[in-house]
Amino acid sequence: MNSKRISEMFDSFDLAPELKDSADYDPERIKAAALERVHAGAAVRPGGRKLMRACLLAAVIACFLSVTAYALVTFGMNVHVSRPGETQTYALYVEDYKTGEIKSQGNITYQAALVLHFDSAEEGREYYFMPGWLPSEPTETGSAYHVLLDQAADELGIKWPPEEAQLPAVEAKFNELAEARGLTEEESKEWLCRCMNGDTETHDIPYQITICSPTDLYGRDLLLGANGEKVQLLSDREESGIRVLELTMEREGAEYPLAKVNYVMRYSLTEGWLLMVGGTQDLETLAKIAGDVQIVSSGALIKAGEEGNRASTLGVAFG
Amino acid sequence: MARTVFDEERCVQALKRGDEEAFSRLIEQYTPYVGAIVSGMTGELLSREDREELVVDVFYSLWNSAAKIRPGKLKSYLAAIARNKARNALRREKQELPLEEDLLLLSPSDPERELAQAEEARLLRRALEAMPEPDRTIFIRRYWLCQKTRLIAAQMGLNESTVRAKLLRGREKLAQILKEGGLP
């Protein structure tokens, strides 16, 4: 039986209903309170180390508190198993790397086996992680340091890598961005956005850990099996406000190591971060890695561009 | 005496550049409208302070997501933010629309094709345009503004059973148009 919630159909509907204006709210009070929040959000925070540790402590405590998920859920994830032949179509945007201009390229159609749809009225925040237990040493990591360097260059309109004469400006902007997050340069190298163990000769990746904040006001989709892989969702459960998925993705008939990978995904329904641990390791090992990761937020809001691709595909890869 | 005309598009462009003066002007202009949505949806469920907090939340979200405002669409963008915030509050208070009134069941023989969001919106618009007044207004109040039928009836000077009957006709019209548009 196919069914729809009418109220949800209105979620993405462009409507400004004519209503009688309310005189109950004082615009001056609203203005004062809104501007106070704007200024608080932009303030450089002193005592950076204490702030980051406070954020870490809050994140760890949140993981262990037993809360009423319904009362605190503000981030949604819908898991949709595609029917045979079902496709997904999105508007496609590409960036002109010479000019930075975002251009529409019409539509793109996928045939994904599984679609994870993320939606929330809350903005996403910038998250990083620190791994705990790992079966082997990482061979490659990406950290807040790299993210902030990229952002510094981007905000200055500088194409990477910067010229020598541009380095002082990039460094100054980096320091500004790091200070706003309460991070020293050393600390920014500890907080990771990516961590993997991979062998470039055998092309095997036993594990890869990434974190992101996939929601914005209109929702984003993560497509699994969009390149013909067979996807099996083995487990979908909720644990104390965290939605946990375990699945396998296999490209049938292929014989390279990454033809079959396992994934453990942990999605916070209260904070909106998505932790993905994937690779050729067995699910039990990947689940152990995922369960021992500490997650922190820099507090910075993720501001999505006016135009942007609403779907991304999932893969485990080098680079 | 000089008169300053409120140029909304220029204000929005300035807002996108992080202009606090423009932000302030937009708050002055739209507080009554955003307040009407928040009050209309949450009514007596929330205290005055909590409703006011929601209105502040809406404008703070506007500040943080200004880049997404399309030309000429500020009001509907604000309406969408306000509706989402208010619906989250309704969910927290377990006051969502009852499933039996909100769920549109489509034919069991349909081949379960999932409509793209844009196509669904187009068919919904067609269904609304096909409804006469006051049916359309009642439908929007119930399913966009999530107002109770008793309140809709009181505010529109109608009998509650009349409101329920018109909603039923509206749901039937919507189901018919969805089937014509995408499902056999």
Major sheet characteristics of chain A = 7 strands, antiparallel
Rg of chain B: 19 Å
**Might you state the CATH topology name of the largest domain in chain B?**
Rna Polymerase Sigma Factor, Chain: A
Low-pLDDT sequence parts of chain A: 43-72
Number of DSSP strand runs of chain A:
16
Number of strands of chain B: 1
How large is the count of helical segments of chain A? 8
Write down the domain tally of chain B. 2
Assess the beta-strand content of chain A as a share of residues. 25-35%
Any idea what the CATH architecture of the largest domain in chain B is?
Orthogonal Bundle
What is the fourth-level CATH superfamily of the largest domain in chain B?
Answer: RNA polymerase sigma factor, region 2, helix turn helix motif
Terminal Cα span of chain A? 44 Å
Structural class label of chain B: mainly alpha
Structural class of chain A: alpha+beta
Helicity of chain A, in percent?
25-40%
Major sheet of chain B:
none
Q: Which radius of gyration of chain A do the C-alpha atoms yield?
A: 21 Å
Mean of pLDDT of chain B: 83
Q: How are helices and strands ordered from N to C of chain A? A: EHHHHEEEEEEHHHEEEEEEEHEE
Q: Which H/E pattern describes the elements of chain B?
A: HHHHHEHHHH
Based on Cα principal axes, name the global outline of chain A: globular
